[in-house]
Amino acid sequence: MYQIWLGLNILWEMALEHRLLVVAYLLVALVLYIYTLARRPHSWKRSFRPAVVLGVLVAILAFFVLPGQTDASFARFHQWLDWALLTAMALGVGLALAVLAWPLISLMRRQRPTQIA
Q1: For 16-44, b where at least 16 C-beta lie within 10 A, e where not — what string?
Q2: Sign of CA dihedral 91, 97, 103, 107
Q3: pLDDT tens digits, 59-83
């Protein structure tokens, strides 16, 4: 239980250390969603699956890249918590990208308004 608390504490401290980056990300996401909602027509349903696929691909890539970015290696992962935290970080990176990709893909896939002849 202590290791889980330690992992969450490290995550919190990293978020505080990089709070400007976190706030900038949230503002960019908010502006993207507001802009996409203001532009009609948009296709949220059609753009959801590509955003999820992109997020999953980025999460898989992050799973293998993140240990090298933190000066760790898979050989040092001895406990289940190491693998769980790496998986959580990779999923977080994938989710963060999917959240930004969804409105962008929706804007790129805008439905054409139907014209009555």
Answers
A1: eeeeeeeeeeeeeeeebeeebeeeeebee
A2: negative
A3: 999 999 988 877 777 777 788 777 8
Residue 7 domain boundaries: 2-108
Is residue 117 situated within a structural domain? no
* Number of compact structural domains in the chain: 1
In angstroms and rounded to an integer, the radius of gyration of the C-alpha atoms of the chain is 18
Q: Produce one character per residue of 89-115: b if its CB has 16 or more CB atoms within 10 Å, e if not.
A: bbbebbebbbbbbbbebbeeeeeeeee
On whether the pTM is more than 0.85, the answer is: no
